[in-house]
Amino acid sequence: MINLGSLFGPSSPPLVGLDISTSGVRLVELADTGKNELRLERYASEPLPRGAVVDGNIENIEQVSEAVRRVWKKSGTRVRLVALGMPPASVITKKIVLPAGLADDQLEVQVESEASQYIPFALDEVSLDFDVLGMAANSPDDIDVMLAAARKEKVEDRVAIAEAAGLTAVVMDIESYAARAALERVTDTLAGAADQIIALFQIGAQVTHISVMEGGDTIYEREQPFGGNQLTQDIVRSYGLSFEEADARKKSGDLPDNYQADLLAPFLESAALEITRAVQFFYTSTPYTRIDQLYLAGGCALIPGLLDLVASRTKISSAVVSPFKGMQLAPGVRESALRAEAPAYLVACGLALRRFG
Q: Around Cβ 278, how many Cβ atoms within 10 Å?
């Protein structure tokens, strides 16, 4: 069984959430104010060199470790325990049914036996964990158990990055689970949210991850190969810039006058089309015929014009999610800067929430 805090288990506070994505590293530290409220203590990000992380795989441990070291120092935190995330594509999850009343050691044996049926690797090659969800719906003598498995080498790469940066990994979560935890904290305060079907579109550098939830349960997940790097590549081709310079100018807006019409507008159309197609595919491939609320997250979520275009095309109430909504802000956190960056911190915030179990 996986033994570093687990993919599901309780954490050992204090700890910070550390999100390692294709484009960069993001860190979030949260605190409990003692009034059933959370406070954002610190957050920071560092870009990653192109190719350091590809399709969720760590290709250059040294470069990523250095970025983690920089982001930890930049944030000002003293906490060295971290919660890390694994890309959903790197983790196999399966809900299984087991007899109720098993002792812990018996439960582990049963989980390993069941896991061997679903995992296309030898069990000694994977990190395996499980979480008891509760009594099975149709059988009072059984329990529902969620198992999760990832290749050991992929888990160990992330642990090695933390260690090389002088940190200790105590929790390994699944990025999509962390994102949903952060979103649920926000939506739980909204009237009627429990009965809504909510879709979350996380637009990353290379991939858009789609999660659809109903009543807190995930009913649909999918990834599409579309992300912000497509716009960066267009800038590279059009203006003869390096990828890194193009990415920086994309964020600062320091681009020629024709950028808006020639590059940004077509990209926004493509993004809205991808989201609309994903919604239609959800309708045609599941029994569901509605989505009540659509949320955008990720680095592209705040590009001017995208939200209105998505709402117009999908005909669904749409919003950009800020994972820090309703939190107090520590004195060192600048609200204006946070507002412009918050949607990119959804996973890091969800990881940081593991501090509170």
A: 21
**26 and 44 Cβ atoms separated by less than 8 Å:** yes
* pTM, rounded to two decimals: 0.90
Question: Quick one: pLDDT at residue 285?
Answer: 96
pLDDT at 42: 96
Cβ(297)–Cβ(21) below 8 Å: no
According to the model, what pLDDT value does residue 140 have? 84
pLDDT of residue 191: 60
Rounded to 5 degrees, φ, ψ at 11 are -95, 175
pLDDT confidence of residue 116: 84
Low-confidence stretches of the chain (pLDDT beneath 70): 1-13, 191-193, 357
**CA–CA gap between residue 12 and residue 43 (Å, rounded):** 20
- What the block records as the tokens of 248 is 């920086």
- Answer whether 108's CB lies under 8 Å from 43's CB: no
- Which one-letter amino acid corresponds to residue 305? G
What pLDDT does residue 157 have?
Answer: 95
- CB within 8 A of 67, min separation 6: which ones? 24, 25, 46, 47, 48, 52
